[in-house]
Design goal:
With about 725 residues, this protein is an alpha/beta fold. The chain is about 50% helix and about 10% strand. It has 28 helices and 15 strands. α2 packs parallel to α3 and α26 packs antiparallel against α27. The chain starts with a helix and ends with a helix.
Length: about 725
């Protein structure tokens, strides 16, 4: 890019963001009251100008007050966050808070001043809206938006309510509700419906859902914009209802299949004159309801291979998608997920990527390098050939529960990559949240700095904030975790546990990768240090969560050592060994279930109850419960290849779903040994699939309340298992 063009390029983005730079003082003050209600009158809000188009905050003490300065409410929120973390040693997040302000607030000596080097701080992934957010109400969304503000996020993906806009657009085109029944998916599958991967599964979608979530989206957007955030709204990608072929028989449609056990979907060819027309109608209808910040997401080839690798075709498709945005909004900026370039790298070579990207002006496209923490694409595309791009940590796939993450990478790589002039931001693009709070907080500590983070020092500060006290043993424990579960691992998630796998005599359970990329005794040693510190730190909610999570991880890893002994005993016709080891694995599952029941973070009952609460009739609640159960188990029908993709180590799920499967498996193996007959693995697989499908369609209740004391039960598990586990790893 030539120097003059480069200046114009950054001038565009600076102008785009300074247009939203005015501080909404009432929004900032209301936020402070929500976060620190008992101390809100000790804080004063002050507006200061942005610096070179970048957000800025200041912090100082004046006249007995703490002055929070910022160019927008978001910056004021970041000033408060800085004060709470660094002066009050408080911590806030998804999994346990430590918000105990001192009676006398600490004085800020001098003036603290920070400017972010990142124009954009992006947040969310299409999948997050289902693996974590499917059932959120306004109260939960409000908490999350406050969390975004505290962490400096200014570019959230905002997809809620999209289906209501499509309903209205298609109604105006002559489609009836009956025509659309097979189009809209159930609420747990919107992400893949929105991305054009599936139709109808988990539906038909009730009208009440559409209406209520359209109103919810209005609240979400109003609150995000009050902070000065610029939400990314959806645009048309070509995905149309199956009934489109009947309504418009001359339309240029092509079938495509996601190859994950679902029926074909229909995509309208970008060359069809209706493509731009429909895209324009959608953005106009959406803008009428929700307004716009001129940022739009569209991914027409998400996990769907284009029909040809011809550059002319790819370029033409890209132009039409962009044209469908600018026809309604000339200021449109296309925010494209770069996932396809990694996920289908065998298709997307330099010629094809350039064709797709270069069809759109540089100042009207941003590429999300979605998986930069482990699989960056900018390194193989010459930094997206000049397109502005955003560095992202993906971190979690499917909502699986496992301690993992690339701490050293996220601590240093974002600031190092600021050398790329077209890197315009950083962010989080997780498929699911509400787990591994330390690595998310570490990643977001990059927002207001342009230098690498010293992870070891950072972890000591984190532990102090999270637990309320400095503790040498805990510092040592976190260093052990840093060098074990939090080392880089190019697999999609941390190691899984055999307990969540569908039992199978022929192969290791599908979709469960149990191979450890670290020495398991490192985690056990960290566990011991946590338990030795329990008496001192047990008053911290964050500590209680971490003790449960680390205990869970140790036990989950240990389960992986028991299962091979069971299979070995069966193959050797060792009935005593078989009974001993199978009983041990089943008891371990009961113990894990009991431990996890002490934290709301790990309750199946809450997930199902939240789903049912969205219904206004028993029929609707039953539908949503089906969605909730199916997503985290089978994912689709009983033969769906994605089963266990979204497995969770949750109380209720272990005892009612995972454990019975293993009990049936062991009963079958036992019968085989007693009768000296071969075990019919194929028949068992069919039987277990029928049982799973029946479970998905049940409506039995699970507790929504925690049961037991986290520390006491963790201590009991420690006494029971510590020596056994050490012996297993010798």
């Amino acid at each position: 890019m030539k120097p003059t063009k480069l200046l114009l390029f950054f001038a565009f983005f600076t102008l785009h963001f300074t247009a939203f730079a005015q501080l909404d003082k009432p929004a900032a003050e209301a936020f402070i009251k929500r976060v620190v209600p008992t101390a809100a009158n000790h804080f004063v809000v002050k507006e200061i100008p942005a610096e070179n188009g970048k957000d800025v905050f200041e912090l100082q003490s004046k006249d007995g007050k703490i002055v929070l300065g910022g160019n927008k409410a978001l910056s004021v929120a970041s000033a408060l966050s800085y004060y709470l973390k660094n002066y009050c040693h408080d911590d806030f997040g998804w999994n346990g808070d430590n918000m105990h302000l001192p009676a006398v607030l600490p004085v800020v000596k001098g003036k603290i001043h920070h400017t972010t080097p990142y124009t954009y701080r992006y947040y969310l992934n299409y999948c997050t809206f289902n693996y974590s957010m499917s059932w959120w109400d306004w109260k939960r969304w409000q908490k999350e938006i406050d969390w975004m503000a505290l962490n400096g996020i200014n570019m959230p993906l905002a997809l809620t309510g999209e289906e209501a806009i499509w309903r209205d657009v298609y109604h105006n085109m002559g489609f009836t509700d009956k025509d659309l029944d097979g189009f809209f998916s159930g609420p747990a599958y919107f992400s893949w419906f929105w991305m054009g991967n599936l139709d109808g599964w988990g539906g038909p979608l009730p009208q009440h859902w559409m209406d209520s979530h359209k109103e919810l989206q209005k609240k979400i957007l109003q609150r995000e914009r009050s902070f000065g955030m610029t939400p990314v709204l959806p645009a048309f990608s070509g995905h149309v209802p199956p009934s489109f072929k009947d309504k418009f028989p001359q339309a240029k449609l092509k079938k495509t299949n996601w190859d994950q056990g679902f029926n074909d979907v229909y995509l309208l060819d970008a060359d069809d004159p209706m493509f731009v027309e429909i895209g324009k109608k959608y953005i106009e209808a959406q803008t009428k309801e929700f307004g716009t910040d001129h940022l739009y997401s569209s991914d027409t080839f998400n996990e769907n291979t284009p029909p040809t690798n011809d550059s002319t075709y790819l370029s033409g498709t890209s132009k039409k998608i962009f044209q469908s945005m600018t026809a309604a909004d000339p200021k449109a900026i296309w925010v494209m997920q770069g996932w396809l370039f990694f996920n289908a790298s065998s298709f997307w070579h330099e010629q094809q990527i350039k064709a797709l990207l270069n069809a759109v002006p540089n100042n009207q496209m941003i590429v999300l390098d979605l998986y930069t923490d482990e699989h960056p694409v900018y390194t193989s595309t010459d930094a997206y050939y000049g397109k502005p791009w955003i560095w992202n940590m993906l971190q979690n796939f499917g909502g699986n529960v496992s301690l993992h993450g690339a701490m050293e990478k996220v601590a240093k790589n974002p600031s190092e990559d600021l050398r790329f002039k077209n890197m315009v931001g950083m962010g989080l693009a997780p498929e699911a949240i509400e787990q591994n709070p330390a690595i998310y907080e570490l990643m977001l500590d990059n927002v207001w700095r342009n230098n690498a983070i010293d992870v070891k020092g950072w972890l000591k500060d984190y532990a102090l904030r999270r637990y309320g006290k400095s503790n040498p043993k805990i510092n040592e424990a976190w260093e052990l975790l840093l060098n074990s579960v939090y080392i880089s691992d190019t697999r999609r998630n941390g190691p899984g546990s055999i307990i969540a796998g569908r039992p199978n005599l022929k192969i290791v359970p599908e979709r469960i990768d149990t191979e450890l990329n670290y020495k398991p005794m490192q985690v056990v040693k960290a566990w011991r240090l946590f338990m030795q510190s329990a008496n001192e730190l047990k008053g911290s909610d964050g500590f209680q969560y971490d003790v449960v999570d680390i205990t869970r991880q140790v036990l989950a890893n240990y389960a992986n050592t028991i299962e091979p002994s069971i299979i070995k005993a069966y193959r050797q016709n060792d009935m005593a060994g078989f009974k001993k080891h199978s009983a041990e694995l089943l008891q371990l599952m009961d113990d894990m279930d009991e431990l996890l029941a002490t934290r709301k973070d790990f309750l199946l009952g809450k997930w199902i109850s939240d789903a049912r609460a969205n219904g206004i009739t028993p029929k609707e609640s039953d539908l949503y419960e089906f969605n909730a159960r199916d997503l985290i188990t089978l994912w689709g029908g009983k033969d769906n290849p994605l089963h266990e993709y979204s497995n969770r180590q949750w109380s209720g799920l272990i005892k009612s779903f995972y454990k019975p499967r293993w009990e049936m498996f062991f009963a079958g193996l036992n019968h085989s040994m007693v009768n000296k007959a071969p075990f019919d693995n194929d028949a068992f697989q069919n039987k277990i699939k029928d049982w799973e499908w029946a479970w998905v369609n049940k409506h039995d209740k699970y507790s929504t309340l925690v049961k037991g004391n986290s520390i006491e039960i963790a201590e009991r598990m420690f006494k029971k298992y510590d020596a056994k586990i050490e012996q297993a790893y010798k």
